[in-house]
Design a protein that fits this description.
Blueprint (H helix, E strand, L loop, with lengths): L7 H13 L19 E5 L2 E4 L4 E4 L14 H13 L8 H13 L5 E5 L2 H16 L3 E5 L16 H5 L10 H4 L2 E4 L4 H10 L2 E6 L15 H11 L3 E6 L10 H6 L5 E5 L9 E5 L1 H4 L18 H16 L2 H16 L6 E6 L2 E6 L7 H4 L4 H13 L2 E2 L8 E2 L7 H14 L4
Parallel strand pairs: 3-13, 5-6, 5-7, 7-8, 8-9
Antiparallel strand pairs: 1-2, 2-3, 4-10, 9-10, 11-12, 12-14
Helix pairs in contact: 2-11, 3-11, 7-8, 12-15, 14-15
């Protein structure tokens, strides 16, 4: 097993993939690895192993879900126990109630939950729910905030949408565009102006932007959103698909001390299996069918395997001080990145961070787009050649996991950074 180098087998698989998939992939960011993506064979702890017999320290972690690292033994054993009983029934299972109890015990703003299958489904239904509850049609979102791949979210979106030059996807009806109002992240003046002059059902926000690199909220930005939405009778929607159970056991809401009306969750609460959730006050969530008139249904909603994996993951988070350990690792790695001798800025919130080259600050999407993306890609390639996998896109987050809490892993990463900083 070697750390880096060329990927002949993956290159051959890539040639086949180009024949069968648009752009060779089934999610755009996977094509950002140049000159072609490697193909993963397995993962264990902090490491990901490829079809080419390469090993990388993994700081992508499935783009966030694997806060315990790959193939955590406790989660794996719980999932195996469930699979041996069955993996879909079309009826409720006890595990969905147990996971709901666990989530609501940590997130005070979440009294009831609807489980779905992805972050995209969660935000799509949260927007529908806000419109149904308020009887208003417009939603306010922020430039560069990514809320999944549905029509109402793909307007000035972040992440892969920006990476591939399509922040506004084709195929979205003008009527949809006219129901979405945009402000710059961290700009409360814009929010207040829009809420004053337009009938806004809800304001949806990534409390920490995780799909434009990492961009933290300015002081009082989130609290300002809370006050303004209450003043103008709009709902505040926190998209915590990334930050939920990552920044704290109470998510960004616990970390920043701000409560939302509706919360979307995903990634970590599924333990690495497909998951999404919409949570909030009883009177809002009860608008969902069958108790209300906002429709949602899904064959795989509350799939028992995802429920089991999510519950097991949170149990480990509770008993092993996982968040504190992942923050410690992130701090060490970010400090070493800060020694890179070219102009840059590093944004870090707890255990998620990103480096932006050629700029002195990044507080919103407009500033993030000014960063030198070519330098970042060179750095990514250098890190890959030195055995470390960081996101291939400037507009994603570097994540740490419990499995990275190991001196050998940290020292190997720091050594890779030192070797990778030349030539960028």
């Amino acid at each position: 097993m070697v750390k880096g180098g060329t990927s002949i087998l993956s290159e051959n698989i890539w040639k086949d993939a180009l024949k069968y998939f648009a752009g060779g992939v089934n999610s755009p960011v996977r094509a950002a690895v140049k000159p072609s993506p490697f193909y993963s064979l397995s993962g264990k702890g902090a490491y990901i192993y490829t079809e080419d017999n390469k090993r990388y320290i993994d700081y992508v972690l499935g783009y966030g879900p694997l806060i315990l690292g790959h193939e955590n033994e406790y989660v794996k054993n719980k999932v195996i126990e469930q699979i041996e009983k069955g993996w879909i029934f079309g009826t409720p299972s006890k595990s969905e109630v147990e996971l709901a109890k666990k989530i609501t015990s940590h997130m005070n703003s979440v009294e009831k939950i609807r489980f779905v299958n992805s972050g995209t489904e969660a935000t799509m239904n949260a927007i529908r729910l806000a419109r149904g509850f308020t009887k208003r049609e417009k939603i306010l979102k922020f430039n560069g905030n990514y809320h999944g791949a549905h029509d109402y979210a793909l307007i000035d979106a972040g992440s892969a949408a920006t990476e591939f030059g399509v922040p506004d996807s084709e195929g979205i009806p003008k009527e949809v565009l006219n129901t979405v109002v945009i402000c710059e992240y961290n700009d409360l003046n814009c929010v207040e102006k829009k809420l004053k002059t337009e009938e806004i059902a809800g304001v949806i926000v990534e409390p920490v932007m995780g799909n434009m690199g990492v961009v933290p909220p300015n002081e009082n930005f989130l609290k300002g959103l809370r006050e303004l939405t209450r003043t103008y009778n709009s709902l505040l929607i926190f998209d915590e698909v990334i930050t939920g159970f990552r920044l704290s056991l109470a998510g960004a809401q616990g970390y920043y001390g701000v409560s939302a009306d509706i919360t979307t969750l995903g990634k970590i609460i599924g333990g690495g299996f497909p998951i999404g959730a919409i949570g909030g006050k009883r009177e809002i969530i009860d608008m969902f069918t069958p108790s209300g008139k906002v429709f949602n249904a899904g064959t795989f909603n509350a799939n028992p395997v995802s429920m089991t994996a999510g519950l097991a993951t949170i149990e480990v988070l509770e008993r092993e001080n996982v968040i504190e350990k992942t923050v410690s690792v992130a701090k060490s790695i970010a400090e070493e990145l800060d020694n890179i001798p070219v102009p840059h800025v590093i944004n870090r919130v707890q255990n998620m961070f990103q480096i932006f080259f050629g700029v002195s600050k990044v507080t919103n999407a407009t500033e993030a787009k000014k960063a030198n993306k070519d330098q970042y890609i060179k750095f990514h390639i250098n890190m890959l050649n030195n055995g470390v996998f960081i996101p291939p896109s400037q507009y994603e987050s570097i994540f740490t996991s419990l499995a990275h809490y190991d001196d050998y892993v940290i020292n190997e990463t720091i050594d890779a950074i030192k070797k990778s900083r030349s030539g960028i």
